User: Fold these one by one.
Assistant:
Number 1:
Amino acid sequence: MKKLIAALVASLLCLVCANADDAVNKVCPISGKPVKADQTTTVSATIGFCCEKCQGQFEKADAKTKNAMIKKFAGDKETNKKCPTSGKPVAEGKTATASMTVAFCCEKCKAEFDKDVKKNIAKVK
């Protein structure tokens, strides 16, 4: 429960601070139009690992690697069962939460994206 609360607080802080300059994309993933600075959302994922070593590697990874993991696990209701690094079962308490900012051209596209993050995250380029 504490992890969930921490992830929600982190996400809310990111929402307040996020803008299109921080976004991973320059074109709207729904319409393909240029993005606007005031139309962003934060996509988060909590990722489980088998050990501290794998967790540490993820936490030290570059943004491109982290964003790929976020895309893979965003929208999942539960933490993954196998470590993305080793393939071993996830150990209790070995998780990392990461987030990225996605920008949109308008509120309508943002709302469409937010309806099904798991489906729409693949459109972010």
Number 2:
Amino acid sequence: MPMFLIRVFMVCMLPLSIHAYTFHASLDNSKPMLGEEVNLTLTFSYESVQKEEIEEYEIEEPKFENIQATLINEEEYQESNTTWKVKQVYSLIPKQTGKLLLSPLNLHVESIATAYQEVYNRNTYLEKVDLQTKELELNVQALPQGVKISGEYKLIANVNKKEVDEGQPITFTLALEGKGNLESLDFFTLNIPHTTIYTNASTALNKSFTIVSDRNYTIPAVMLKYYNPKSRSIELIDTSTFSIVLKSDSPIETKRNFHSFYWLLIVGCILLCSYWLYHKLSSMNPKNSFIRKLKKTKSREEFLRKVVPYMEKSKNLKRLIFKLESSNKETFKSLKKEIINEIHLHLKEKK
């Protein structure tokens, strides 16, 4: 009987145990510019409770409307002999101007006194506590007039080669590093005269293009203007320009042969040598070289990349190239022959 009374007394005294839990949220800046990073700190502390007595705790993950929240730091430490703290820091980036409310966040904690952790009905003595932070608000300021992007960025551009054969593609890549309210490069387009440009599959802050042309061209500098909240100023960053050169077939050798044939003409074989010279120079012409390369091309995809730059040269050529994109193995050969004839006619007219 005395043991029974002791147990009853212990159960009755349990609710009187003083466990001090606190949970609050704070902002390091309540009036940011649009896209400016703000730190939200969540602090959970408990006093007069041993760390071993905490069975579990769960802090609600922040999810706010028109605000991007990212966990950047989390730590648990003993502040004093009787106090433990859990601290989480989130980076908040507002996506809209005006007043944005940060709804209260919830915390659930369960603990059990050391004296009851080994008893068979330990769940009887489990203490459950729910806490909630206060509602916070951000008053987001608009960016300076003429600027829509805020943050800190670095823009990087590259090409896989700067010298190619006529009709061969190059790949131009663009990458953005940093953080702010710019979430993707989808808005960026590339426009270069006398080129055909394909946009490749890309990620949010990376974009690439395949470029094909029948002449030399320059990829212009890419520029980005944004507001830097740290320097409190509008900044402009840009990339380098890239000059792409198309290689020609043996121009020096062509010139030498031309002079040789010129002297042969003077010797007296005007008709025969003129005929031979014409066909010799034609075979060494870069344009005829291009025709030979087209004839040797076996892959429909490779052939398509080579002829796309000539799409706008004639309506008939454009029609044939569009048919080529949906052709099969059976129709590819006939379409290939027709397209080569059309391009050959175009090159002869340019002479």
Number 3:
Amino acid sequence: MGDMVRHSAAGAARFLTVADCAEVLNVEADDVTALLDSGELPAIRVGVQWRIERDVLERYIAELYEQQRRHALWNQSDFASIADFAPATPPHRAR
């Protein structure tokens, strides 16, 4: 069955558990569950357990960095340009 598990180029498993995500984000598992329940962090349910794709978590983290960057620009300037607040890269669509 191990052959059926898809791995990334780095050899890591494709899917993470809630506990794995909590460790990566350095938060409590309940915090991750709240993100999943709200839909803020996309995931799938397998039975009663959540599974989060590693790539989805990485995109989520990148989006948080981008939001923080735009927020910091907004707070620094009374006259920031619209281009400063546009995403640095086009948003990714879930497939």
